Recover the amino acids of this structure.
């Protein structure tokens, strides 16, 4: 093969002698000089001089490998010094240089330079760069995988611990509930007495309304007594470990909790507010009843909200809250443990991180597995470009594309969504964003986690040896 | 691109929200009905048969070329001047103006290509009832009846057309405003006088009348307004929140035309309606008033973006035409005795004394200007095309590349986007010639500029396209952002080139850039300046492969009445009212002139416009505006372009895929299959729709779209030759069937299929889920060949054709020869030197003929006889090519690679005889199953004489 390529390098005339124009070496045996040629699809046989005679005889275009005569033919660029390739016949002699060896424009007057060596040099450079990146990236990826494994183990251990502590808490809660109920007995009696005395009997009032009012009274008088509970953000599950600090630029987000539950507390808060509002608004009757009670409430009743009952209540609520938090923790851990962070969990490190890219107009923010957003650079509110949907790469490479869906709705259009394309890189960076279609965003994102084992640098199909 | 463009300045959002109301249909309340347009309402209220107009025969003057005659309105004594011309080419021109208007009335300039040459008129006979004039040819005469005034054009015993036969001539003369104090004094005195006079005249009418006529000149001044009532809307009119100050008062003109024997009328685009015009008795008249109609509705007479006031009337005997040269808001009423005989019988009896013959009556009503009407007498459809072309010119001959495929979208986001779409076409092996940029390419909707971030190096981008022999179109709209940092605005303002408002300041309105001025394109020096802005040194970043698109040139004014300019805005000494329908034509013209000038007059321009008027064909292409991705919109593209073709505008297309909304893959594919066989072939999409480049709908659909775009490219030689023909003759490229089969009534209302030239018949699939279509194959003598299967079908039949997604029912007429280039490449320019395949389809007499036209494809050198024009014909088993333009000189590298003869029998041998007498035997294949003979590689140059004998 080497001698043949040398000939090729020697000049086009040599090629002509060897095989018809536009025929790849692999097909050469089909084009035997001066023997009738059978179309490669077997449809007919024609004299050899009809090969490349600028008239299409074969339906599959195989008789005109070197001309533009057949609509479905292919021209083989040898591209000595670079990578051989096929171009559609329609690109032969169309005045546009397609083959780097200029062989496609032999009769069009187009002045094409042989750029194969130059291309090869450039490609080699960029391949080398890519290979280096891939190599380093792949090493980083191994670390990521290790760390993810460790992280996973830790989480599983933690989960076990937490699940154990949950049992204790549950026991504790039950004990405290009993204590609380005992301590509340005097209060309960007082309440019933008041109900009778002040309002003239249970059957005359809406007991449910009374309950509401009563609890409000209690809250009002007890609020000072009550101790402040610790704020949830110092008490949440431990922040996720952040391996590979040097390869990414996490956006400072110290007070953030592990998500995807990040948003949920807020929403719940809102819901609670709404519920309260609804209760308050249940009817005028209750409001006036409440005022009435406040006015008439004998002073001594206050003392009935005894510190003993209150203490028991507080302790019980405290224990309940602790149990809830443990439940949350378990949920979060279970979610994170079962989350699809790639075949080797190499994407786990992205969890709870955010990455930004600033363009002319906007700051784009990608928080992997959570959401994508866009904020005008010069003031204005943030727009949700989609929340985590799924891995959406093509079959065989599912983990190359992330899809974020159901962002803020577009005016007269769909909800915003973002496709994130991942490519191999040493660093974890958003490299570009665009909006190819209205409200459909595209983000390019590099990460070592997508790096594959460094390919062999000696690209086999390039005629480097020439 | 109407008002719904998402990224608007905040103020516009409010307006848009109002404009939208969330449904996908036009908000009719934004546009006037006849009742809401005071002149239309006034004029339409007139009853037929009560014409107050009388011809004063004694005022008749006849010079060699012109007859003049005064008409008097017996109600108010206002006199009109009638001018009648016999024009060369079997046309009659009738002009009616006030004899002595208070101030000049607008006469439309710049539409006629020249003052139409006249021919002598002569008086055949005359008496007190009228005059008979000879029109010279074929015993054609004009009969002028005196009382009531009426014109009849007759041939032999047949009335071809009558004017004012229903007595609906109305001419609102200019007058002083009555509700001013000084006027009231005089008018009170005058009406007193009138009452006295009336008492006497009723007793002695003939005398009084004679007396009146004798001293009308004196009396006119004092008496002529006496009968006029001041009606609402005469001096001021409001529509929604907009007020029209109407300083000139009422000024409408109107005239009726009767067309005996006619049941089919066509034309008066632009309307989203059937090819055959409908009667308007039960609704509004057809309206001609260039408007930016958001999400237009189909099958109604509402005005759209353009207006060509030309109507064609046709029956099996004759085609005639009416060209109503008036650029003001115009309404056209159509009624027919066959459409609802019981209703119209009475009126008809009045007109004709009989209700036996079918008859169509039309009536034109315009808001201002004069009556200037050209009556084209045919008699054939092709005569009409050449008559109309002699008045307003022919279709400009476009660069060959512009007949290829255009890829457009609002918007291609940036240079990288353009690059990747361009690469996508190569990757999927789909040819295209133009990629388009909508308004977002500019720096803040400042036309002639580029967004500095997204299009930072436009020349690099253009060069990238040029390297692939492709081109770009960038939008340049006529609304200019009011911004003192914008050069174009500053220049227009300092030169006083903006349209003025009624108070004399620069008119401003809202459009894409926010507050915008509107250059006064009616001024020649404004147009010259605008044209100069396209020179390469002025239009930064432009190159010779950048062409232009004029949108929004109705003009669209978001906050104006009916989304357009206030009628009392001022263009020099005229109101916008007078010139409205011309504005878009002038924008188009100035832009086209700019593109010609930038190349020193060498290169042919390409400019697309949305608004148009009679004569717009001279300046480039039009499209049907902002349609929607709906099957009905696909269907309507056919009659809309056919109607435009009938009135000279051949370079027509609809947005492939539909502008608003998102097409299903099936609709998109069907639209490509239809658009590929329509003259202007451009895909376009709204900003808010998902991307729809041809390869985004799966490999199967990509393959279907690729196939049909490639089919388009194989037919480019034929399209090009047809456009050359349209440029020479004015004949439409895309033709209604009746144009070629004028004697077959079965063709008269067909608008679900069409002809390209006369040799290709296309019946696109426009039904969702279609399993088959029924195509009408016209012509008793004809045979038609399916271009895909080569199957032969007889004419004069309804043929059911089963279809799959890949089917596009297209037929080549037996008797025709169509040159094609089967080597489809990246763009039309890449195919320049490629060889031809001649498709010879034999008719029942085993003959065929066709043409081959070749030039450089992009310059005006064809005007200097640099072209090849050959006639190809087949008879007696010999196919020959002869030069029909021996005086022309051009050489081509293209050769004939193949001849395919459809309907052939198998020859023993085929011999080629070249110009030098050399004979050679040619190889051939014969497919007996479909009788197709394929002659292999005759190889002669396409510009040479040759013949080929089948033995």
């Amino acid at each position: 093969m080497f001698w043949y390529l040398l000939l090729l390098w020697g000049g086009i005339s040599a090629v002509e002698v060897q095989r018809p124009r536009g025929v790849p070496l692999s097909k050469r045996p089909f084009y035997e000089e001066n023997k009738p040629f059978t179309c490669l699809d077997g449809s007919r046989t024609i004299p050899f001089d009809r090969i490349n005679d600028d008239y299409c005889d074969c339906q599959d275009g195989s008789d005109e490998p070197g001309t533009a005569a057949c609509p479905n033919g292919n021209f083989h660029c040898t591209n000595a010094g670079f990578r051989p390739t096929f171009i559609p016949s329609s690109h032969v002699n169309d005045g546009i240089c397609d083959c780097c060896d200029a062989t496609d424009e032999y009769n069009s007057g187009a002045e094409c330079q042989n750029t194969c060596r130059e291309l090869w040099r450039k490609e080699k450079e960029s391949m080398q760069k890519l290979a280096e990146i891939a190599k380093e990236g792949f090493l980083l990826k191994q670390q990521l995988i290790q760390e993810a494994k460790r992280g996973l183990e830790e989480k599983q251990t933690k989960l076990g611990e937490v699940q154990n502590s949950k049992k204790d808490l549950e026991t504790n809660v039950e004990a405290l509930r009993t204590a609380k109920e005992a301590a509340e007995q005097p209060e309960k009696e007082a309440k019933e007495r008041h109900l009778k005395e002040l309002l003239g009997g249970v059957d005359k009032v809406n007991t449910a309304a009374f309950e509401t009012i009563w609890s409000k009274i209690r809250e009002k008088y007890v609020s000072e007594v009550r101790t402040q509970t610790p704020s949830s953000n110092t008490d949440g599950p431990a922040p996720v470990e952040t391996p590979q600090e040097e390869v990414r630029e996490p956006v400072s987000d110290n007070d953030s909790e592990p998500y995807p539950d990040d948003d949920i507390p807020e929403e719940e808060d809102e819901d609670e507010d709404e519920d309260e509002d609804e209760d308050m608004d249940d009817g005028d009757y209750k409001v006036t009843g409440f005022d009435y009670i406040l006015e008439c409430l004998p002073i001594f009743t206050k003392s009935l909200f005894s510190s003993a009952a209150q203490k028991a209540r507080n302790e019980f609520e405290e224990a309940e809250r602790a149990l809830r938090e443990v439940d949350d923790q378990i949920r979060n851990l279970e979610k994170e443990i079962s989350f699809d962070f790639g075949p080797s969990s190499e994407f786990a490190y992205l969890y709870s991180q955010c990455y930004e890219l600033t363009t002319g107009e906007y700051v784009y923010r990608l928080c992997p597995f959570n959401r994508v957003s866009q904020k005008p650079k010069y003031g204005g509110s943030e727009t949700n470009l989609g929340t985590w949907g799924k891995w959406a790469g093509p079959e065989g490479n599912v983990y190359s594309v992330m899809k974020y869906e159901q962002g803020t709705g577009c005016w007269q259009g769909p909800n915003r969504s973002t496709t994130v394309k991942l490519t191999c890189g040493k660093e974890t960076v958003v490299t570009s964003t665009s909006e190819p279609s209205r409200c459909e965003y595209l983000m390019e994102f590099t990460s070592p986690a997508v790096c594959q084992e460094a390919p062999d640098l000696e690209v086999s199909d390039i005629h480097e040896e020439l | 691109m109407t008002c719904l463009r998402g990224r608007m300045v905040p103020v516009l959002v409010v307006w848009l929200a109002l404009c939208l109301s969330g449904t996908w249909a036009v908000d009719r309340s934004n546009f006037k009905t006849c009742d809401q347009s005071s002149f239309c309402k006034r004029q339409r209220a007139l009853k037929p048969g009560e014409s107050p107009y009388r011809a004063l025969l004694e005022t008749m003057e006849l010079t060699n070329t012109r007859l003049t005659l005064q008409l008097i309105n017996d109600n108010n004594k206002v006199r009109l001047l009638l001018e009648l011309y016999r024009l060369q080419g079997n046309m009659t021109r009738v002009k009616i103006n006030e004899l002595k208007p208070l101030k000049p009335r607008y006469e439309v300039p710049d539409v006629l290509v020249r003052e139409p040459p006249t021919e002598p008129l002569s008086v055949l006979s005359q008496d007190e009832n009228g005059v008979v004039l000879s029109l010279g040819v074929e015993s054609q005469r004009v009969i002028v009846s005196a009382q009531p005034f009426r014109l009849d054009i007759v041939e032999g015993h047949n009335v071809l057309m009558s004017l004012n036969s229903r007595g609906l001539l109305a001419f609102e003369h200019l007058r002083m405003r009555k509700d001013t104090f000084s006027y009231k004094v005089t008018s009170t005195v005058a009406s007193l006088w009138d009452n006295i006079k009336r008492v006497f005249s009723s007793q002695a009418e003939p005398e009084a009348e004679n007396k009146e006529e004798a001293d009308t000149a004196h009396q006119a001044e004092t008496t002529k307004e006496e009968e006029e009532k001041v009606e609402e809307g005469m001096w001021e009119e409001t529509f929604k929140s907009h007020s029209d100050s109407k300083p000139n008062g009422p000024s409408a003109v109107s005239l009726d035309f009767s067309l005996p024997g006619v049941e089919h009328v066509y034309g008066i685009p632009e309307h989203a309606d059937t090819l055959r015009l409908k009667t308007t008795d039960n609704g509004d008249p057809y309206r001609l008033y260039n408007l930016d109609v958001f999400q237009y509705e189909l099958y109604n007479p509402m005005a759209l973006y353009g207006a060509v006031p030309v109507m064609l009337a046709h029956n099996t005997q004759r085609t005639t035409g009416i060209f109503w040269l008036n650029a003001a808001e115009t309404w056209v009423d159509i009624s027919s005795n066959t459409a609802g005989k019981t209703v119209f019988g009475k009126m008809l009896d009045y007109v004709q004394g009989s209700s036996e013959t079918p008859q169509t009556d039309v009536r034109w009503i315009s808001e201002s200007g004069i009556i200037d009407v050209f009556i084209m007498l045919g008699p054939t459809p092709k005569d009409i095309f050449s008559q109309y072309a002699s008045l307003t010119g022919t279709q400009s001959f476009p660069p060959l590349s512009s007949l290829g495929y255009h890829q457009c979208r609002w918007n291609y986001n940036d240079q990288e986007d353009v690059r990747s779409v361009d690469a996508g076409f190569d990757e999927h092996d789909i040819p295209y010639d133009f990629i388009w940029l909508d308004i977002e390419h500019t720096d803040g909707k400042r036309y002639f500029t580029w967004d500095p971030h997204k299009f930072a190096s436009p020349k690099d981008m253009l060069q990238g396209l040029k390297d692939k022999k492709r081109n770009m179109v960038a939008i340049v709209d006529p609304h200019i952002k009011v911004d003192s940092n914008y050069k174009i605005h500053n220049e227009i303002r300092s030169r006083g080139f903006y349209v003025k408002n009624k108070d004399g300041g620069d008119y401003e309105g809202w459009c894409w850039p926010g507050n915008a001025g509107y250059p006064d394109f009616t001024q020649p020096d404004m147009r010259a300046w605008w044209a100069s802005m396209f020179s390469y040194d002025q239009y930064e970043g432009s190159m010779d492969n950048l062409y232009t698109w004029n949108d929004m040139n109705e003009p669209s004014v978001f906050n104006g009445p009916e989304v357009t300019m206030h009628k009392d805005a001022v263009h020099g000494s005229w109101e916008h009212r007078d010139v409205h329908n011309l504005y878009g034509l002038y924008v188009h013209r100035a832009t086209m002139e700019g593109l010609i000038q930038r190349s020193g007059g060498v290169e042919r321009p390409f400019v697309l416009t949305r608004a148009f008027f009679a004569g717009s064909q001279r300046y480039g292409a039009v499209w049907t505006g902002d349609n929607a991705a709906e099957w009905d919109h696909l269907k309507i593209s056919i009659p809309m372009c056919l109607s435009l073709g009938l009135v000279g505008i051949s370079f027509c297309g609809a947005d492939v895929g539909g502008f608003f909304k998102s097409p299903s893959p099936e609709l998109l594919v069907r639209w490509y299959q239809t658009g590929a066989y329509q003259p202007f072939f451009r895909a376009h999409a709204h900003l808010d729709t998902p991307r729809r480049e041809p390869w985004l709908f799966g490999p199967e659909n990509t393959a279907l779209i690729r196939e049909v775009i490639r089919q388009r490219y194989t037919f480019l030689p034929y399209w090009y030759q047809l456009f050359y023909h349209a440029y020479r003759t004015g004949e439409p490229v895309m033709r209604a069937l009746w144009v070629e089969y004028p004697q077959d009534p079965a063709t008269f209302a067909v608008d679900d299929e069409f002809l390209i030239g006369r040799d290709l018949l296309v019946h696109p699939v426009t039904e969702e889920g279609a399993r088959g279509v029924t195509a009408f194959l016209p012509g008793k003598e004809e045979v038609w060949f399916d271009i895909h299967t080569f199957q032969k079908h007889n004419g004069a039949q309804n043929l059911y054709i089963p279809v799959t997604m890949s089917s596009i029912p297209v037929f080549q007429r037996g008797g025709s020869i169509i040159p094609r280039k089967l080597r489809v490449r990246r763009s039309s320019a890449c195919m320049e030197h490629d060889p031809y395949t001649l498709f010879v389809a034999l008719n029942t007499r085993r003959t065929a003929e066709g043409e081959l036209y070749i030039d450089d494809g992009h310059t005006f050198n064809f005007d200097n006889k640099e072209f090849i024009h050959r006639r190809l014909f087949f008879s007696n088993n010999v196919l020959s090519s002869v030069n029909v333009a021996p005086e022309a000189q051009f050489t081509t590298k293209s050769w004939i690679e193949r001849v395919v003869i459809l309907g052939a029998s198998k020859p023993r041998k085929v011999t080629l005889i070249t110009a030098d007498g050399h004979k050679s035997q040619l190889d051939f294949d014969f497919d007996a199953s479909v009788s197709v003979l394929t002659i292999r590689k005759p190889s002669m140059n396409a510009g040479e004489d040759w013949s080929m004998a089948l033995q």
About this structure: The longest helix of chain A spans residues 116-199.
